[in-house]
């Protein structure tokens, strides 16, 4: 089955700096790559997603890049703010019905 | 719309007890999922359903059973709870295709 690895497990940045989280996947048939944000004690919520026919997608301060050849994708957050502090999960999907998640990155934005 | 709801929010069980977690969605989604979340391990798929009356195994199905008798409900059962099943359980739903999954608020289960 699919295997998703996510790095780093923790990330601390100063407010205003950029944060980058990286994920690799194992199955070249995966075609859907969402990113979820989970605040403490809350449910995961989708922040951005990308499909295999696109190399990059941006939504305000958040962007995702996908390298199908290398089987890795990354989340970029620019101009970080304290409210960006949370755990971020990447995921990959082969069949549309199943997501395989990475182990999460705890992002801490310090003042 | 309430979205995805889960019942109960918290539960403590003794080893060997049984219980059922209920997930309900009012978005008319075909697909529903049960995940467990453990520290350092992300979310792992237990079982899922692609339609009323259908279920399938996910990554970690052992010790759990599910039923999807109605399109809007997806039940997760533990027949004989074990301490290893202490976790936070999330339900999610989506429309068919590579689409966003909407998560419920979670159920925190402790098995003593």
Keywords:
heterodimer; A: 111 residues; mainly beta; six-stranded mixed sheet; five-stranded antiparallel sheet; 11 strands; 0% helix; B: 112 residues; seven-stranded mixed sheet; four-stranded antiparallel sheet
How would you portray this structure in words?
The complex is a heterodimer of chains A (111) and B (112). Chain A is mostly beta strands and 111 residues long. Helix content of chain A is 0%, strand content 55%. Chain A is built from no helices and 11 strands. In chain A, strands 2, 4, 5, 9, 10 and 11 form a 6-stranded mixed sheet that branches. A 5-stranded antiparallel sheet of chain A has the order 1-3-8-7-6, with no helix packed on it. In chain A, a hairpin with a 4-residue loop joins strand 7 and strand 8 (72-77). Chain A is globular and about 40 Å long. With 112 residues, chain B is mostly beta strands. Chain B is built from no helices and 11 strands. In chain B, the strands form 2 sheets. In chain B, strands 2, 4, 5, 6, 9, 10 and 11 form a 7-stranded mixed sheet that branches. A 4-stranded antiparallel sheet of chain B has the order 1-3-8-7, with no helix packed on it. The N and C termini of chain B lie far apart (36 Å). Chains A and B meet through strand 5 and strand 10 of A and strand 5 of B.
Structural class of chain B: mainly beta
Contiguous low-pLDDT stretches of chain B (5 residues minimum) are none
Mean pLDDT of chain B: 95
Largest inter-chain contact set? A-B, 24 and 23 residues
Give the strand content of chain A.
Answer: over 45%
Instruction: Describe the global form of chain A.
Output: globular
Shape of chain B: globular
- Number of helices, where a helix is a run of at least 4 consecutive DSSP H or I residues of chain B: 0
Encode the helix/strand succession of chain B as letters: EEEEEEEEEEE
Helicity level of chain A: under 10%
Radius of gyration of chain B: 13 Å
Mean pLDDT of chain A: 94
Q: What is the distance, rounded to the nearest whole angstrom, between the alpha carbons of the first and last residues of chain A?
A: 41 Å
Give the N-to-C terminal Cα separation of chain B. Answer: 36 Å
Please report which band the strand proportion of chain B falls in: under 5%, 5-15%, 15-25%, 25-35%, 35-45% or over 45%: over 45%
Query: Total number of β-strand segments of chain B?
Result: 11
The main β sheet of chain B shows up as: 7 strands, mixed
Order of helices and strands of chain A: EEEEEEEEEEE
């Amino acid at each position: 089955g699919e295997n998703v690895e996510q790095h780093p497990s923790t990330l601390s940045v100063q407010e205003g700096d950029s944060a980058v989280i990286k994920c690799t996947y194992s199955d070249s048939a995966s075609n859907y790559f969402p990113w979820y944000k989970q605040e403490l004690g809350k449910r995961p919520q989708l922040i951005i997603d990308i499909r295999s026919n696109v190399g990059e997608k941006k939504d305000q301060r958040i962007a995702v890049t996908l390298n199908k050849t290398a089987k890795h994708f990354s989340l970029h957050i620019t101009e970080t703010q304290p409210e960006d502090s949370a755990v971020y999960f990447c995921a990959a999907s082969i069949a549309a019905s199943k997501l395989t998640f990475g182990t999460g990155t705890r992002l801490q934005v310090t003042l | 719309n309430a979205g995805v709801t889960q019942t109960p929010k918290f539960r403590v069980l003794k080893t060997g007890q049984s219980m059922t977690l209920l997930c309900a969605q009012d978005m008319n989604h075909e697909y529903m999922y049960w995940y467990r979340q453990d520290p350092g391990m992300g979310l792992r798929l237990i079982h899922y359903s692609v339609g009323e009356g259908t279920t399938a195994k996910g990554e970690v199905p052992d010790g759990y059973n599910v039923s999807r008798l109605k399109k809007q409900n997806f039940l997760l059962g533990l027949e004989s709870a074990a301490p290893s099943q202490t976790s936070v359980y999330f339900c999610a739903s989506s429309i068919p295709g590579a689409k966003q999954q909407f998560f419920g608020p979670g159920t925190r289960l402790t098995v003593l």
